[in-house]
User: Which sequence fits this backbone?
């Protein structure tokens, strides 16, 4: 174990103070009436190419991304490199769907995907179901941002007594600050802090990929020599699983409410397209961070440090440990702060998007006479509540179960695809068939996840089907969903046309 140097703590705390200042300054930046929901939630839809690039970068590439992917590579090998092609494919999906959604939202004042669904299909039931799905799928996602932040605190506090208590107090203080500036500044505060977070992450990524291989005798060659073949190539038995993980994850990314929230904040559709086209640059950083899961095997001091922790929790400590044992103390503070606020920023945006869904698409359906000011106030309060629910979630359950529920979140959010993506372009879809498809997709996905994991005994998102092999559960469930959504719509449309013909005779 190690005691963190003062030279590490000073830049960490100094930059965290800058993070706080930027968060609260957001209230005064590009002033708007923050008592209006679209001003508070979407920064008035006034963000340009560069700011949307940074916001979506912070929104999509989170602390958990930079911790979980190296963790997966460290523990399981090349299967977790699916994250690299998936992000490239995801932005192709975004360029097809998001400009269309942005244009409709701008024209009709939508703030959430459920706003669009209710208007497009004339179905409150379908809109509410999609809102609930979005809220539930994001709770474990926020929790896993906190798991990523915990990895930083574990490394920094490993040499002191009562470190677990200090970790919890540190997280609580960080979330109180986050809740305070989010409540007052809305998405403006999140955007400014996103710029700081992304700058720190990019500095870290560039420094790590240069310094770490140079500090290892033999560089990547030594690291890959010391690992199993499964770390170099995907085993034959997992090829279908790898391919469906790429496909399913790419389809799901821009269905998450926080991603849509970031998209709708763009000033114009042209600027949205440009920022989206630039976002694959983050994929380069992600690929570099994934390699950290292999490079650490060639850094004995870091491996020795990890040996002091239970095997199940070593993965999330890979990147912080590697930074700690290969970088000078002052830079370690900068890099660890980047990862730490890399969890806070997306957690803020996720909670805001949850609050929008709760207020606009559930509470307003129950209380349709809610005033605009009351809507904004409820949204702000709900956003705060969601942050602390996720924090309590992390404090009360083991990380293994948090990861299991995150897998479930990905499976759930994928099931809104027929209504949201296809609903943008295909007029023949029927609300009744979409509701049935959504419910079948969700229930089948839950069943397969529980069957595969034996209720949490083994964390896996792949389901084995004879002939096809191991497949990503979200894709299997989505195939059931699509069959019912399109098949049911076709049957209903044919029946309606037949009835129309008969009535005209």
Assistant:
């Amino acid at each position: 174990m190690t005691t963190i140097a003062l030279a590490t703590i000073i830049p960490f705390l100094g930059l965290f103070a800058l993070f706080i200042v930027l968060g609260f300054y957001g209230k005064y930046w590009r002033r708007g009436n923050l008592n209006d929901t679209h001003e508070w939630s979407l920064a008035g839809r006034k963000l340009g190419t560069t700011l949307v690039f940074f916001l979506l970068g912070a929104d999509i590439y989170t602390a958990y991304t930079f911790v979980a992917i190296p963790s997966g590579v460290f523990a399981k090998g090349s299967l977790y490199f699916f994250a690299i092609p998936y992000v490239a494919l995801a932005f192709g999906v975004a360029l097809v769907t998001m400009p269309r959604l942005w244009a409709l939202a701008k024209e009709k004042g939508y703030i959430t995907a459920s706003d669009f669904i209710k208007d497009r299909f004339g179905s409150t039931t379908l809109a509410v179901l999609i809102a609930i799905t979005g809220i539930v799928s994001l709770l474990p996602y926020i929790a896993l941002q906190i798991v990523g932040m915990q990895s930083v605190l574990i490394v920094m506090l490993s040499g002191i007594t009562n470190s677990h208590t200090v970790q919890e107090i540190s997280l609580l203080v960080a979330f109180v600050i986050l809740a305070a500036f989010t409540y007052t500044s809305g998405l403006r505060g999140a955007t400014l802090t996103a710029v700081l977070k992304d700058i720190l992450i990019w500095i870290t990524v560039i420094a790590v990929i240069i310094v770490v291989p140079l500090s290892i005798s033999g560089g990547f060659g030594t690291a890959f020599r010391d690992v199993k073949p499964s770390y170099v190539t995907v085993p034959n038995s997992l090829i279908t699983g790898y391919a469906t993980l790429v496909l399913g994850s790419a389809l799901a990314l821009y269905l998450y409410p926080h991603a849509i929230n970031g998209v709708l904040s763009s000033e114009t559709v042209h600027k949205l397209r440009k920022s989206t086209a630039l976002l694959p640059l983050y994929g380069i950083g992600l690929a570099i961070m994934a390699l950290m899961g292999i490079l650490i095997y060639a850094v004995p001091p870091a491996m020795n440090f990890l040996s002091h922790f239970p095997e199940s929790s070593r993965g999330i400590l890979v990147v912080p440990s590697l930074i700690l044992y290969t970088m000078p103390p002052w830079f370690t503070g900068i890099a660890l702060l980047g990862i730490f606020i890399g969890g806070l920023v997306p957690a803020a945006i996720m909670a805001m998007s949850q609050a929008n869904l709760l207020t606009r698409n559930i509470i307003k359906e129950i209380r349709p006479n809610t005033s605009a000011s009351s809507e904004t106030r409820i949204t702000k309060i709900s956003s705060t509540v969601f942050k602390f629910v996720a924090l309590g979630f992390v404090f009360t359950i083991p990380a293994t179960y948090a990861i299991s529920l995150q897998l479930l979140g990905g499976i759930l959010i994928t099931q809104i695809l027929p209504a949201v993506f296809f609903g943008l372009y295909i007029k023949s879809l029927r609300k009744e068939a979409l509701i049935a498809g959504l419910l079948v997709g969700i229930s089948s996905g839950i069943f397969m996840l529980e069957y595969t994991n034996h209720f949490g005994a083994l964390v896996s998102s792949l389901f084995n089907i004879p002939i096809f092999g191991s497949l990503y559960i979200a894709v299997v469930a989505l195939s059931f969903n699509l069959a019912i959504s399109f098949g049911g719509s076709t049957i209903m449309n044919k029946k309606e046309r037949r009835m129309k013909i008969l009535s005209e005779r």
